[in-house]
Amino acid sequence: MLRNAGIRIWMLTGDKLETATCIAQSSRLIARNQMIHTFKQISNRSEAHLELNSLRRKNDCALIIKGDSLEVCLRHYEQEFIELACNCPVVVCCRCSPQQKADIVTLLKKHTGKRTCAIGDGGNDVSMIQAADAGVGIEGKEGRQASLAADFSITQFRYLGRLLMWHGRNSDDGGDDADNGSLSNDETATMTNDDDHDGGDELWQLHFLCFDGKNFHLTKFVLLPFVFSFQLQEISSSGPVCYPQDLLFP
Fold this sequence. Notes:
Layout: E1 9-12, H1 17-26, E2 35-38, H2 45-56, E3 61-66, H3 67-76, H4 78-87, E4 90-94, H5 98-112, E5 117-120, H6 126-131, E6 134-138, H7 145-149, E7 152-154, H8 160-177, E8 182-183, E9 188-193, E10 202-207, H9 213-231, H10 238-242
Parallel strand pairs: 1-4, 2-3, 3-4, 5-6, 6-7
Antiparallel strand pairs: 8-9, 9-10
Keywords: Magnesium, Metal-binding
Organism: Porites lobata
Domain P-type ATPase C-terminal: 148-171
């Protein structure tokens, strides 16, 4: 579902290579008939150059790389590796330290200019979650450290699709449309909205008595966001989850 929505997925884990590969295949992160390129163990600049050339000749293949090999590539060929890895549909980085996870998120933000979302369930994911634009923590057997450090917390991984596809889309669109609303410390709050995109704005006027600053802030921060939350929902909640390809992320 996430791939159909145009989201690029990187799996960063501390597990060994065999375990990480099995998890990626069993979770269908890597398709059954998809080619896999396993980055060889490297230790110097020349070996990194040869492996990057080998990866450059592969098309539409999943990349699996160990943390120490990744560190060598980033030390000598940071720009080239990020460009090649971003062209891969799936990237699996195994044997990663917590700091490496955070560094990868920071590099992706720096080189691609895209927004990043990090999902984790353990204490070793905290630095990665905090480095991303949006952090999602999953409460599980490993405790609540990740959920407490994250921007959003879920109890099961299967809720992630609805969180990103439905709530994330509404939050993004709502933030843009909310700029159309104007509120002054007077008796009238005027909000404009053009849901049907016909060029004509619907003019709403909410009259309220503003006797003191408390009533004004109550209306501004409670009433108006509550009204916007209903008005700005353009599609049903099942639409983005069932048809993610219609909501391709840029």
